[in-house]
Amino acid sequence: MKRLRILGSALLFFFLLTSAALAAQPEITADSSYLDMNTGQYVLVGNVKITTPDRTFTADRAQVSIASMEVWGQGNITVAQDDILFKGDKVYAQDSTKTARITGNADFHRTGLSIQADEAGYTWTTKIAEFRGNVIMLHNGRETKVDHLRYDIENNKVLEDN
């Protein structure tokens, strides 16, 4: 694997849980990488792994636009921190709005809680995650099915479900 050091703060937008890691330079690895001169995006391909002292992100592929501070990731997205594991098919994160959206098989796990949905959004300024479409929550052995669920990650509590 080729070790990469590419303006680490731009890739930290993948880390949906907090913005505190912006001060730390992540360790970034991928099978290959290049700068696409047509789009101005850094492209990471194959076994993408971004590690900070607090969390680990993986994907099959990722693109980063330094100019617009946007990040796209595809295939086997995972974010792991402490007792939290978040998975999905695709992620899009944008610094200007401090948001990230996971589409396709959003799957969130932490001790005593599991939430699955078609998609999930996260705002790192509020630490609130929103799950939409075929939401299934398993909380302390109780299953709930809803169309929409808001969850406070920092305080580990459901804010609303319907």
Write the layout of secondary structure elements.
Blueprint: E1 2-4, H1 8-11, E2 27-30, E3 32-36, E4 41-51, E5 56-65, E6 70-81, E7 84-94, E8 99-110, E9 113-123, E10 128-139, E11 142-152, E12 157-161
Describe this protein's structure.
The structure is a single chain. The chain is mainly β and 162 residues long. The protein is built from one helix and twelve strands. The chain has one helix at residues 8-11, and strands spanning 2-4, 27-30, 32-36, 41-51, 56-65, 70-81, 84-94, 99-110, 113-123, 128-139, 142-152, 157-161. Strands 1, 2, 3, 4, 5, 6, 7, 8, 9, 10, 11 and 12 form a twelve-stranded antiparallel β-sheet that branches. The longest helix has 4 residues, at 8-11. The N and C termini lie far apart (45 Å).
Condensed summary:
This protein has one helix and twelve strands. It has one helix spanning 8-11, and strands at residues 2-4, 27-30, 32-36, 41-51, 56-65, 70-81, 84-94, 99-110, 113-123, 128-139, 142-152, 157-161. Strands 1, 2, 3, 4, 5, 6, 7, 8, 9, 10, 11 and 12 form a twelve-stranded antiparallel β-sheet that branches.
- Count of alpha/pi helices: 1
First-residue to last-residue Cα separation: 45 Å
Tell me roughly what share of residues is in helical segments: under 10%
Shape: elongated
Secondary-structure class: mainly beta
Determine Rg (CA atoms, Å): 16 Å
Strand content: over 45%
Rounded mean pLDDT is 82
> How does the major sheet shape up?
12 strands, antiparallel
Total DSSP E strands: 12
- Weakly predicted, low-confidence segments: 1-23
What's the SSE pattern?
Answer: EHEEEEEEEEEEE
